[in-house]
Amino acid sequence: MSLNEINIILNKVEKPLRYLGDEYNAVKKDWEKTGVRSLFAFPDLYEVGMSHLGLKIIYNIVNQHPEMLMERVFTPWIDMEEELRKKDISIFSLENKKPINDFDVIGFTLQYEMTFTNILNILDLGKIPLLSKDRTNNNPLIIAGGPCVFNPEPLADFVDVFIIGDGEEIILELLEEVKKNKEINNGVIEKESLLKELLKIQGLYIPVFYDVDDMGIVYPVVPEAPCPVIKRTVNDLDQAEFPLKPIVPYIETVHDRGMVEVLRGCNRGCRFCHAGIVYRPVRERSKEVLLDQVKEIIKNTGYDEVSFTSLSTSDYSGIEGLIRETADEYSEKGIGISLPSLRVDNFSVNIAKEVSRVRKSTLTFAPEAGTQRMRDIINKGVTEEGMLEVARAAFYEGWQNIKLYFMIGLPWETEEDVLGIVDLARKVLAEGDKIYQDSHHKPKVTISVAAFVPKAHTPFQWVPQDTSEIIREKQILMKKNIKSKRIVFNYHDGELGLIEGVFARGDRQVGKALLNAFRKGCKLDSWRKFFDFEKWLESFREEGISLDKYNFRERALDEKFSWDIINPGVRKSFLKSEYEKAQKGELTGDCRFTLCSVCGVCQDLPVKIDYKGDRKIEIKS
Amino acid sequence: MKLRVKYKVTEEGRFLGHLDLTRTIMKILRRADLPVMLSEGFNPHPRLSFAMPLSVGHIGDGEFFEVALKEEITEEKFLDVFNKFAPQAIEAIEVREVKGSQKSMSSIINSAIYVLNFTDADCALLRKRAADILTEKEIIILKTSKKKTKEADIRPFIYDIIVDEEKDMGCKVKVYIAHGSKENLKVQELLNLFSLEGISIEKVSIKRKGLYIKKDNEYLDLIDVLTNVG
């Protein structure tokens, strides 16, 4: 791609730096001299993709290999897409500005179902045939990883190879095979033989070796194809590669800070939570390793904030020491700490206090549901008194605005549960009013209420999803009952969630509707102003896909699922018993703090829970 | 101590907005572990100040910022360390200590020199146009602000225009204009005056050569000023 051509179009777009590369720590290798060329394709904007830890991890691992390179591409904003299409220029990588079809391998990350049309759009902008069967040896191998691959079937017609589970080890194993294949075949990948070789790597789902029956159930058609495909896991986070020299974007990104991953996985066992199943078991990183990483990352990036990320950072066994030692070392230099949402307990408020030594950010908690009954159904071990105690502590420590996350549309939800959210918000605010009664400050509570979308491989994979009409009714009910102006109510209409739901529990058939919707112009669906519900419904209708079948029916307990082809380690029997316990409102403990719940991960996979706290964990069989 | 730093915004840096640039410089200072003085308050940040912001899309040969440091450091050391940790977008070229109390940079700057690079224009035409502009007594253009459109005479803000032909490289037009908090001409407004038959201004690349304090016909740069004082 000539730089001149690129410069001309970049002059015309709103944020050229999204496409330019050249950031500090970006790796631009010699294209001609590097044997294996791979591209990390993030199906969302640069600002979103550059905030993503997985990209940083994989980019770092591949680029450390002397004979491999990895570059980046993101979904272009509409102005850039328009220029590319008008001038008939292929979308290009940020580093060497190569048309994406020139790469050997393109890897997409599937973080969210509503980015699927962006995947097709990137391929299309790269003049690469969308369907695997239409691609030749002159096109890249298309691979995909990330949480959504645990239900791969909606994308099975488009993706050659799915990577299931942690990508750290498997990515190099895969690229080594690509390298060998290229060497044997004079620099061209021979896909048929490559895919056969890849069958030997554990953790890959390669759709060409499988077929589906009338019910969408997947079965292998060659004896070597694994059934089910078992996810890969990193066993020791201390030994795992971690990016200490991450790219520093020039423009502000969504999470514009250094990142260390304190632990992976979560055993809390919230029954709606997809990540809580597919990233099991909990594996912690040692505090010493983390402190070293923080030091290196700050030195190598110049960020003034470092984030301790994970699914549940306040559960990290060494969290107090980690935060205290980091704050002691860096608060003088104006370097702050950021945490994702906190667990509802007093301990979290202490942590937040420590964190706020440099910058006071908003405090966010996720009670998820408004009544005790519902919190028990979803296995969220939070009580109302606990929540109020935390609120008191937080207001007392000087926070004036508390943010709470909730969901509506959870299974067996009643009007009382919905109103319970408003009620809890009111009680939290009342605690604030008590503490601030002699002050001119007026405390505020912000509630963000999402509509629940049932996901594959969770205890709620059997339940029907609420229709958008019911969601709307519940939202109106809440709105009517919020009397205080100091309770801010954030919500979205439920239509996007319906489409998300189809892909979250969809089979290969829904991929046809995806293609149809893309042809009709659907893209950037997660941006509300581009989401076109009517076009989606039309695409479903034309492919004979009913929302009833995928979203609104209760599934039979013994039903086979199209995603059974993937094994996340957690047993289906465990999910079933969790589903049954949910109906009775019975709780299941976290094996870090109570007994092992025998979910199957530590029993069936070559990985064990790695908890660095004092309690010794006994894994039952 | 306070340092005034003269730096370049390179070809790679021309799309950085002023905020992006500020954030980038802050990160360089932290990577370099320079003893930067922090502001007080809830959100401490390095005490930095800038001269006139550079427009997005322009490159700059003589841009300036000032930074307050907690400890003494030699000018050479600062320059060396800063550039070691700078990305391709910017490069420091000169550093000078600001001694005593000095007026802020933005209050003393009153002019700028820009270079307009016409890659495929006829130099003779440009030369003629430049001469015409300079002989005009008054040049009235329409200035649009948020609320209203008004007429303004920009001729007093154009000090000089010099056209240089470069072999096979098109034509470089150097313009000396008013640029500051009191009197100011946007370089784009001057460039528009060249948009005539036979000249396309679409592909012109713009470089700000420097920010100056103009006294009579002398252009002093912000580092020279400090040298003369010290």
- The quaternary state of the protein chains shown equals heterodimer
Main sheet summary of chain A: 6 strands, mixed
Number of helices of chain A: 22
Radius of gyration of chain A: 24 Å
**CATH topology category name of the largest domain in chain B:** Alpha-Beta Plaits
Q: Uncertain runs of chain A with pLDDT below 50, 5 residues or more?
A: none
Please supply descriptive tags for the structure shown above:
heterodimer, A: 621 residues, alpha/beta, 6-stranded mixed β-sheet, 4-stranded parallel β-sheet, 22 helices, globular, B: 230 residues, alpha+beta, Alpha-Beta Plaits, 2 domains, 9-stranded mixed β-sheet, 6 helices, 11 strands, 35% strand
Write a structural description:
- The complex is a heterodimer of chains A (621) and B (230).
- Chain A has 621 residues and is of the alpha/beta class.
- Chain A is built from 22 helices and 19 strands.
- In chain A, helix 16 links the parallel strand 17 and strand 18 (487-491).
- In chain A, helix 10 runs parallel beside helix 11 (319-330) and helix 14 packs parallel to helix 15 (415-435).
- Chain A is globular, with a radius of gyration of 24 Å.
- Chain B is of the alpha+beta class.
- Chain B has helices spanning 18-31, 75-84, 105-108, 123-135, 187-192, 222-229, and strands spanning 2-9, 48-50, 59-68, 90-97, 111-118, 140-144, 149-153, 158-166, 170-178, 205-215, 218-221.
- Chain B has two domains: 2-103, 2-Layer Sandwich (Alpha-Beta Plaits); 109-215, Alpha-Beta Plaits (2-Layer Sandwich), CATH 3.30.70.
- Chain B starts with a strand and ends with a helix.
How are the SSEs ordered, and which strands pair?
The complex is a heterodimer of chains A (621) and B (230).
Chain A: H1 3-10, H2 17-20, E1 36-42, H3 46-49, H4 53-64, E2 68-74, H5 78-87, E3 105-109, H6 116-125, E4 141-145, E5 161-163, H7 170-184, H8 191-198, E6 204-205, E7 210-212, E8 218-220, E9 229-230, E10 258-261, E11 263-264, H9 275-278, E12 283-284, H10 287-301, E13 305-309, H11 319-330, E14 336-338, H12 346-355, E15 363-368, H13 372-377, H14 384-396, E16 401-408, H15 415-435, E17 444-451, H16 468-481, E18 487-491, H17 495-504, H18 508-519, H19 533-542, H20 547-552, E19 566-567, H21 572-584, H22 601-604
Parallel strand pairs in A: 1-2, 1-3, 3-4, 4-5, 9-19, 10-13, 13-14, 15-16, 16-17, 17-18
Antiparallel strand pairs in A: 5-6, 7-8, 11-12
Chain B: E1 2-9, H1 18-31, E2 48-50, E3 59-68, H2 75-84, E4 90-97, H3 105-108, E5 111-118, H4 123-135, E6 140-144, E7 149-153, E8 158-166, E9 170-178, H5 187-192, E10 205-215, E11 218-221, H6 222-229
Parallel strand pairs in B: 3-10
Antiparallel strand pairs in B: 1-3, 1-4, 2-3, 5-9, 5-10, 6-7, 8-9, 10-11
